[in-house]
Request: fold
Amino acid sequence: MSYLEIKELQKRYTSSGPLIVNDMNLLINKGEFIVFLGPSGCGKTTTIRMISGLEEVTGGDIMIEGQSILDKKPKDRGVSMIFQSYAIWPHMTVFDNIAYPLKLQKVSKEETKKRVEAAAAATDIQGLLKRYPAQMSGGQRQRVAVSRAIVVEPKIFLMDEPLSNLDAKLRVSMRTELKNIHNKLGATSIFVTHDQAEAMSLADRIVIMYKGKIEQIGTPMEVYQDSATRFVAEFIGTPPTNFFMTTIERDGGGLRAMNEFFRYQVPKSLVSALTPYLGQKVEMGVRPEFISISPEMARTEGYLADVEIHFVEPQGSHSILILDMGGNEIKIHTSRYMDIQAGTKISINVKEERVMFFDCDTGVRVK
Amino acid sequence: MMDRLSIVQKTVVSIFLAGMMLLVVVPLLFFSTVAFSNATEMSEFPKNLFPFFNVTVLVEAADDGQYEIFYDSGEGYESIITTGKADKLEKHFRRQYSVTVSGEQLLEDFARTQTEGPQEFTYKKDVFYNFKQFFNIVPNAASALKNSIIVSLLTILISLSIGSLAGYAMARFSFKGKSQFNVAMLIVRMFPVVGISIPMAVMLIKMGLYDTLLGLALLYSVPNIALTAWITNSIFIGINQELEEASMVFGAGRFQTFMRVTLPLAFPALAASSMYSFLTAWNDTISALILTNENQTLALVVYKAIGTTSSGIQYAAAGSIVLILPALVFTFIIRKYIGQMWGGVEL
Reply:
């Protein structure tokens, strides 16, 4: 039995308004670190607010350990939350902030003190307990928020973009720390973010949402290497996947995807899946690191076309080459030819048949 | 970082500030001096800027055991009264000099002049004579003070409880006609209280609340509910909603959240609003004039005292001091919260 179950969950803000969350189904196991990832407005924050009880549910059910929690007030759901603004109460000291939930539970004074100190130690803020939030930096406030969340020993941790108000460097180090705390406590966590790097580095499984629907649920490797939809292929990865509009045509015994710039021999593993699309348009996607380059006119396996390099963006460990194919910007990730110059003419090839095809209407991967 | 001023700029600024100080301080000082002056000092010219606390008279023995009292009101001693009766002396000293010494005592003191010649005698003024006199002359002053306190507290209670709820609703919920509601409240605030006194009087008479403290408090609350709603609305908007949500997730119900999180954070706004409500209720005379008969407030009583006497100005001034003090005390208590509110404290 799964720990948290979300069943056909729906949310509308007004009775005639659009579905912000549209028939969401999700099973979460105990101790998992789940990340909800998606662009703003995709319903990810609304979903965890419904789990926490801050938002009413329009349809469907949410169950923890097999029991529906919809009738319970936020305080009785056994969840704790880290908010985007930290939501540290400015009129209380750090100690009182962390002790607040324990005071309401009428935990004895000695035990409260013990637990608050333990929680503060976990986030390394033992020295700040007597301070007020106004006297602390953003990173320290964030730690107070984390301490307060862990002091209640919740069934589920909910984190609503907790790192988005920190500066870039602090964000990365807090990220590691959050993961550390999660591993130590083994708590079930749901983390909301729109930052894919954060999602990839933290998650056991990523739930990618778009317009209120789940696009894909999978490990970071799965969603990257084996994207289920065009949206996922585009959203995950920097730079994003390159897309080419192609038409499927018969080519001897096999198929080829072609457009005005290239004709690409469809890998054998995809032939049967693509056969129904004969004569129709499909979108072909190749990730930037799966496009290799070779000197012009050198026809190698997976050859696509000859193109001129527009820009080079050196990144140190690798370079991003930007090409232009009839107004379509193509980005290539290369660590071999890092000092190549703009203006050079090259041939581009698909590496190791690492190509994805997507249905033009539904955006679903064809495989 | 403050700019440094040159010596010329400093001088100009100092003169300007000193001028402002004089404009504010001199009338206040003069006013309180009047409140502590005795009847004789009232007729002196030029007036003293600071009150004296002693009275000096010259006494010369006259025939038949009588004494002639001389008083110096700036141009040398002048003969004021000649008498040998204890009760007459006592009355004279009390009324003219605010000196409360018994007539027998005075006669005993003056007896020396019969053998030693004319002498000066100095007596301590009864500092609070005017205040006592005010409460004596105006028979309902004490009950008016009580009325004023009650009406002010009622006004604070009514405007805060209704106004802050309205402010909270406007800050947290969206509803149809919200902006119209907002403007409507501003318009209510624009009416002079006098303007609504007459219709209010009619309504209050119908409700049986005419000449009651509650009726008066209701009238004062009308503009202050709107003002409180405006002030608290902006504060509630400034309080991040996540602070309340966090409280609910971490174990509090709605009411507990309001008491433990929202209210403490909104306290400066409530304090400021309560000050406005208090001042409206405490300082008003005209509405009280229209709406009360028996149950007058202190401001009205003082107003009447000033308006109807020509000789007892110092008693009215003493009454005014009684009127000002509570307002001063209240404002000073509230001051630090108002500073917090407009000092840009991040919530």
About this structure: Residues 230 and 363 of chain A are 5 Å apart (CA to CA).
